[in-house]
Amino acid sequence: MNASLGSVQFPRAEFATGRLLAGLAACVAMAGCMTTKVDETRQSASAVQRSESIVLLRKPQVEGTGAEDAFLGCLQQRLGGQILHPEQGQAVKAANTSTPFKIYGSQQFEDAMFPWFENSTAPSNAAGLKLLLQRPGVTERLQQISVRYIVWIDGKTQTTDSNGSIACAIAPGAAGCFGLGWWEKESGYVASVWDLNTATEVGSVSTDVTGTSVLIGAIVPIPIITPVRSKACDRLGDQLRSFLIGGSAEPTPASTGVSGGSSGSR
Q1: Is the bond into 123 cis (omega within 30 degrees of 0)?
Q2: N or C: which end of the chain has fewer CB within 10 A?
Q3: pLDDT (average), residues 141-166
Q4: How confident is the model at residue 90 (pLDDT cuts 50, 70, 90)?
């Protein structure tokens, strides 16, 4: 007698067309697949100095939690700046370092500037920023901690489609899982850069990564995971770093690509 252990179901009733099946088979052969796009919009030239800092902040949301902590942490590392942790104090001075700029801790920044950059009070546009900088003590405090740019991060990673099923069963002397399931995830993020010296938004960088992951039931489940959030972090981080250190003021054309994924989870 067979004893069923259960199954993992992926919603949406059926594989719609032969084209979808062919694309899924190609993804399996490539160990996952992704498409990526990066866009940059620049209103003015900008270049952060080694004695100055940037701060990455999650853009305030009316609903939801916005960009994930894991993504913000990954982006900080990818930018390659010297990360200043809260216990290192408020003062940021020039130093002989190979890093192009410093990254101020977000919690430290919010504490130092309290209450002006809390979710409920942070300015939502350049006009609001100008009004904020006119408040007594705000500009002086920013100069004291040497933060030049605020980079607002908005976006998330979400599952956009899924299909197929995996069933697992056990019998005397044998057990196994059979079937095929897939799911598609999209990582879309935007980094808006505000120059606190001029109270303007100097530009933005965005990335959109879509990837298909597969779970194959072949006696044991074999996951082929496409790390879309990790790829989005890499692409956004590289483009944002170029933006901040004063690359060409010409807009960077959107780029697309297909690349393989890897086993694991993201």
Answers
A1: no
A2: N
A3: 91
A4: very low
Kindly provide the residue ranges of all beta strands, DSSP E only, lying in the chain, ordered along the sequence: 3-9, 33-42, 53-58, 82-84, 102-104, 147-171, 174-195, 200-224, 258-259
Q: What digits encode the pLDDT tens for the residues 61-71?
A: 665 567 888 99
- State the pLDDT at residue 98: 59
* Residue keyed to tokens 């705000």: 138
Give the pLDDT score at 60. 78
**Distance separating alpha carbons of residues 153 and 66, to the nearest angstrom:** 8
Q: How far apart are CA 238 and CA 120, in angstroms?
A: 31
Residues whose CB is less than 8 angstroms from the CB of residue 88 and which lie 6 or more positions away in sequence, other chains included: none
DSSP state of 255: B
**Omega before residue 100 within 30° of 0, cis:** no
Using CA atoms of 79, 42, 154, 240 in order, give the dihedral in degrees to the nearest 10. Answer: -10
The CA distance from 113 to 195, in Å, is 16
pTM above 0.70, yes or no: yes
Task: Using DSSP, state whether 13 is helix, strand or coil.
Answer: coil
- Assigned token pair, 125: 């546009």
Could you tell me the pLDDT band of residue 100, with boundaries at 50, 70 and 90? confident
3-state secondary structure of 186: strand
Q: Contact 42/249 with Cβ under 8 angstroms? A: yes
CA neighbor of 249 nearest in space, from 99, 42, 92 = 42
User: Mean pLDDT, the chain, as a whole number?
Assistant: 77
Residue 67 near residue 94, CB atoms below 8 Å? no
Q: What would the pLDDT profile of 165-189 be if each residue is shown by its tens digit?
A: 888 888 787 778 888 888 899 999 9
| CB distance 164 to 184 below 8 Å | no
